[in-house]
Amino acid sequence: MNQAESKRKFSMNKLFVYLFLSLASLLSLFPFYWMFVMATQTSSAYNSIPPTITPGNLLVENFQKVLLQIDFFGALWTSFVLCSIVTLVVLFISSLAGFAFAKFYFPAKNFLFITILLTMIIPPQLGLIPQYFLIANAGLLDTLAGVMILFFLNPLGIFLMRQYIGDSVPDELIEAAKLDGCSNFKIYRSIVLPIILPAFATLGIIVFTAVWGEFLWQFTILRDPDNYTIQVALASLRNTVNVDFGMILSGVFWATMPLIIIFLLFNRLFISSIAEGSVK
């Protein structure tokens, strides 16, 4: 095979890859487009046959109905505060635990790590009742503290941090810091944290989006409309005889926008952090 044929074959392979990625991107974006279309239509368009795929002109009107039914911006702010606090605490706890599991030796370390991983296979619905009674006995029902405390310990975060720190932080660097008289926490703060920024960005995206989209636990704990997160507030829109799908999907559409913006911001940080990490 000469150079021209090899180059042509490479170009064809590259073309197929781009076509596949383009198709996958369109399929991934279609649910968001359909949500936008339904948010601009009347409720009758939700069940129309053939389905409506072109936007209407009722986006603002449907959103005005949402504002009349719920405190949309208050619930949005509550969700943002909740997700931000949970994300920061999870990043701190998971990175500390990952650092300990990756770089320290203590009795039953592997057993404890495997036990943490095993909790990931337990369905969250299975622990709903005992967790509810624990929160109720602690006097944290209908509070944001009662909602967020359940998310602080994240087995996936501990696993990701343990793997990333184990591969990215050299043992020699830690030993040199100890010889210089650094405490374990100072090593974590001054050496480990700058190195694991890519993992921070990745885990931050995962935790923030997961807590933002979580509904069952928030719905179980929160009762006062003043404490509603955006998921619970949007669910309350269905407490009517005639469900207005255009109104509901309009609220869902606008509630998704902050999440997409935050995701894009963290995604840029993730890419830049990888570049910095590779240079270091």
From TrEMBL:
<feature type="transmembrane region" description="Helical">
    <location>
        <begin position="132"/>
        <end position="153"/>
    </location>
</feature>
<feature type="transmembrane region" description="Helical">
    <location>
        <begin position="75"/>
        <end position="101"/>
    </location>
</feature>
<dbReference type="GO" id="GO:0005886">
    <property type="term" value="C:plasma membrane"/>
</dbReference>
<keyword id="KW-1003">Cell membrane</keyword>
<dbReference type="InterPro" id="IPR035906">
    <property type="entry name" value="MetI-like_sf"/>
</dbReference>
<feature type="transmembrane region" description="Helical">
    <location>
        <begin position="15"/>
        <end position="36"/>
    </location>
</feature>
<keyword id="KW-0812">Transmembrane</keyword>
<dbReference type="Pfam" id="PF00528">
    <property type="entry name" value="BPD_transp_1"/>
</dbReference>
<dbReference type="InterPro" id="IPR000515">
    <property type="entry name" value="MetI-like"/>
</dbReference>
<protein>
    <submittedName>
        <fullName>Sugar ABC transporter permease</fullName>
    </submittedName>
</protein>
<keyword id="KW-1133">Transmembrane helix</keyword>
<feature type="transmembrane region" description="Helical">
    <location>
        <begin position="191"/>
        <end position="212"/>
    </location>
</feature>
<feature type="transmembrane region" description="Helical">
    <location>
        <begin position="108"/>
        <end position="126"/>
    </location>
</feature>
<feature type="domain" description="ABC transmembrane type-1">
    <location>
        <begin position="76"/>
        <end position="266"/>
    </location>
</feature>
<dbReference type="GO" id="GO:0055085">
    <property type="term" value="P:transmembrane transport"/>
</dbReference>
<feature type="transmembrane region" description="Helical">
    <location>
        <begin position="245"/>
        <end position="266"/>
    </location>
</feature>
<keyword id="KW-0472">Membrane</keyword>
<keyword id="KW-0813">Transport</keyword>
<comment type="similarity">
    <text>Belongs to the binding-protein-dependent transport system permease family.</text>
</comment>
